[in-house]
Design brief:
The chain is globular. A hairpin with a 4-residue loop joins strand 8 and strand 9. Helices cover 48% and strands 15% of the residues. The strands form five sheets. Strands 3, 4, 5, 6, 10, 11 and 12 form a seven-stranded antiparallel sheet that branches. It has a seven-stranded antiparallel sheet with strand order 15-14-20-21-22-19-18. The chain has a five-stranded antiparallel sheet with strand order 2-1-7-9-8. It is an alpha+beta fold. Bound molecules: arginine and glutamic acid. Glutamic acid (GLU) binds next to strand 21.
Length: 722
């Protein structure tokens, strides 16, 4: 028994170590394909990405530049998260037709709602252009010269690479400047809202359950891509027709079981998996605590008013959620970095690399990398911290300062590009702000300002502060700003921004709110940014060389994947529970019972629609249940990050089984360090999505256009996509 267990532990170590990584879809053949097949995949790498034939990638557009979506019918029906479609759902909502509260379902194509500005971008082709981008780069060049030359080369390659007239070329770097890839993309611009569950399903559990497992959220919404009559991208027009995809995902009715293979295909935003230990220590000890402390203060104020005033609750729901989202993530991340001993593990990896450098006689080339990291990161720390305070205070959490900062940038546009650019951008800003001011509460913002400016003056070292912040009376400043600045209401803001550039700039300079942001920004750009950017440029150079060393000196089977950079990636793993603490084990699948268990009637986060309760009581699940129970969410070892929201979870055969929307609390440090024992992504079970559309909403019209399959039951082959 003991021996068996020992053997099991031994075997499970390398097996676990195989997990994690976000891979480039055009480069899966070889190691990734073998791993995926070992995990149970029945497709080939070419079924996932193929230049000449339809493949999975043709069903997966980037949704509005930030989320992922997937085509699930031959008529361009698009599935993404509820939180990805949130602002579109909100923008169509009124007090009488509150789609956020009640949901929205188009029962015919005529009822689908256009969303100007929303996009869906497909990847047509991926090509390695490293040699072209590196042409003319020599070791003797300074980092700044290298950077400039690379930018010129990127512009030339984007200009000259073959594409159709309606397509676009984008070059992105991988492995910190060791590899460059060209993406030919196609962006569709007529994206209509088709369906959304009420928030009590789509956002069930809200902030309390955010980043948490066990989870019970139906985080999905439906859109449709429209194209011109040649099936090409076009601006919104009544004459547009539903898009015919090169490929769409069939949906599996068979669900998942523990250990099933899953593949998550999407557009992860940013990760930093190869930071040296010194940088991770700064995240844990300096940067995350500062970010969290600033947001603690902003959230405390907003929460207080939201609880007291239903109007403010509506106005601040979305803003509060977005501030709280990363505030909570950073807390989980810090805990996870500590618990997984990320710093210790990085240090071990660094010693191993140093030994390898010495063994291979590469001291000349790589011997200084780690000591230099130490030097530059240590020098950068106070600047990075001051930068964080500036960004969080002036650009993110105080609304008045954020708006005034945009005016500050506008003044720079005038100085650099003249009157016409100024006017275009001003008009655009005035337009955009009208919807933001609808959700603005002066008294909430005033109190956030007061708290955050006091904190700023206290925490930012004197050498980085604007002179006006030294020995200042915050209370008097707050009174003056919120009593006299034009930024406190849309009308006075509009008046302030009215006239030619000279007039607007004169008026801005006399505005007390503008003066605060100008002082902060001037001080930042004079005392913090130049040094920060100089050190950052050196650090980027080191990161590139460090990555080169890792690629060159690591064992052949080391799985070195490129950091996320908002490009299309494949991550894969299996459905698996985890143990978050001693004696606790979390199962990988939740069910509708769990929704009912969490139900708090009338609650802001945990209310449940009566219709869903009725369906639960009647066990009216149609063909979507498994053994009489309705699955809701499941987790797996897929390595995901922000941007993977809305990504399809795909089964061994290429069918949709789930919809990615979050990660578990104990594993959110995976942006820096993926721990196979703790890092899990959270997905909505595709059957729950179908159940809500069919049984809850009665939108059979949508179910009918989908292709529902049984890959596990019956003849697997006939169901396998070809
Ligand atoms: N944590 C998920 C993601 O990063 C979901 C966020 C939306 N949900 C929420 N309750 N704020 O984006
Ligand atoms: N909810 C996240 C998003 O918007 C995905 C969760 C994560 O960060 O893993 O992309």
């Amino acid at each position: 028994m003991k021996l068996l267990r020992l053997l099991f532990i031994f075997l499970s170590v390398p097996l676990f170590a195989q997990q994690g990584g976000m891979w480039i879809p055009s480069l899966l053949e070889g190691m990734n394909e073998t791993e995926m097949k070992n995990l149970g995949m029945k497709m080939s790498a070419k079924d996932i990405y193929d230049v000449n034939n339809a493949s999975l990638k043709d069903a997966i557009p980037h949704f509005n530049g930030g989320c992922t979506s997937e085509v699930i019918s031959d008529q361009g029906l698009l599935l993404t998260n509820h939180h990805c479609g949130y602002s579109q759902i909100q923008s169509h909502s009124t007090l009488e037709n509150d789609y956020l509260a009640d949901g929205f379902w188009a029962m015919s194509k005529k009822e689908e709602l256009p969303n100007p500005g929303v996009t869906a971008t497909f990847i047509v082709r991926i090509e390695d252009v490293t040699t072209k981008i590196m042409a003319g780069i020599t070791d003797a060049m300074s980092e700044a010269d290298k950077k400039a030359k690379i930018e010129t080369n990127i512009a030339a390659v984007s200009q000259s690479s073959v594409k159709e007239a309606w397509q676009e070329n984008r070059v992105r770097t991988f492995y910190e400047g060791n590899q460059y890839m060209l993406f030919v993309v196609e962006t569709y611009k007529d994206i209509r809202l088709v369906g959304a569950p009420p928030s009590s399903i789509g956002k069930f559990g809200s902030d309390s359950d955010n980043w948490i497992w066990p989870r019970h959220t139906g985080d999905f919404s439906l859109f449709r891509i429209y194209a011109d009559k040649n099936n090409r991208p076009a601006e919104y027009s009544e004459d547009n027709v539903p898009y015919t995809p090169k490929h769409f995902l069939p949906i599996s009715l068979d669900g998942v079981a523990e250990n099933d293979f899953t593949l998550v295909f999407g557009f992860p935003g940013t990760t930093d998996e190869y930071l040296p230990a010194v940088a991770i220590e700064q995240v844990i000890n300096t940067l995350n605590p500062a970010r969290i402390a600033i947001r603690d203060k902003a959230l405390a104020v907003q929460d207080k008013y939201m609880r007291a005033d239903p109007q403010i609750k509506i106005q601040y729901a979305s803003k509060f959620a977005s501030i709280a989202n990363y505030w909570k993530k950073w807390r989980g991340e810090t805990l996870g970095l500590k618990k997984s001993n990320a710093v210790g593990i990085k240090k071990q990896q660094e010693s191993a690399l140093t030994a390898q450098i010495n063994k291979k006689g590469k001291q000349q080339e790589y011997g200084q990398l780690l000591p230099q990291f130490e030097t530059y990161y240590t020098q950068r720390e106070p600047y990075a911290l001051a930068r964080e305070y500036f960004l969080e205070t002036a650009l993110r959490n105080v609304e008045l300062l954020r708006t005034a900062y945009q005016a500050y940038q506008l003044v720079q546009v005038y100085e650099n590009r003249g009157e016409q650019s100024f006017e275009d951008r001003r008009d655009n800003m005035v337009d955009r702000m009208s919807s933001q001011y609808k959700n603005y509460s002066k008294k909430v913002d005033e109190e956030v300002f007061d708290a955050l400016i006091a904190f700023y003056a206290e925490k930012v070292p004197a050498q980085f502060l604007p002179d006006s912040f030294k020995d200042m009376n915050v209370e008097a400043l707050t009174k003056n700003v919120y009593g006299n600045s034009a930024f406190v209401s849309y009308n006075s803001f509009k008046t302030l921004m009215d006239g030619d550039a000279e007039t607007v700039i004169t008026n801005l300079k006399n505005d007390p709110g503008y003066q605060v942001v100008k002082d902060m920004a001037d001080a930042y750009f004079e005392k913090v940014a130049p040094k920060y950017e100089e050190l950052q440029l050196n650090i980027s150079g080191l990161e590139r060389d460090y990555m080169k060393a890792l690629l060159e000196l690591s064992p052949k089977d080391a799985r070195i994947f490129p950091n996320a950079n908002s490009t299309l990636r494949v991550t894969y793993g299996k459905v698996a529970g985890y143990s978050p603490a001693d004696a606790v084990y979390y199962e990988p699948v939740t069910h509708l019972e769990g929704v009912i268990q969490k139900y708090v009637p009338g609650d802001y986060e945990f209310d449940v629609p009566q219709k869903l309760i009725d369906l639960y009581n009647a066990k009216d699940y149609g063909e979507y249940a498994e053994d009489g129970r309705m699955p809701v969410n499941f987790i797996g070892t897929n390595h995901t990050t922000g941007g993977n929201s809305g990504s399809p979870a795909i089964d061994a055969y290429g069918n949709l089984v789930g919809l990615n929307f979050d990660r578990v609390w104990e594993g959110t440090m995976s942006d820096y360090y993926y721990d196979p024992a703790l890092s899990r992504n959270i997905m909505v079970d595709a059957r729950y999505v179908l159940f809500i559309i069919d049984k809850y909403a009665g939108a059979k019209n949508l179910i009918e256009e989908m292709k529902l399959v049984h890959p596990k039951k019956g003849n697997k082959k006939s169901k396998k996509k070809k």
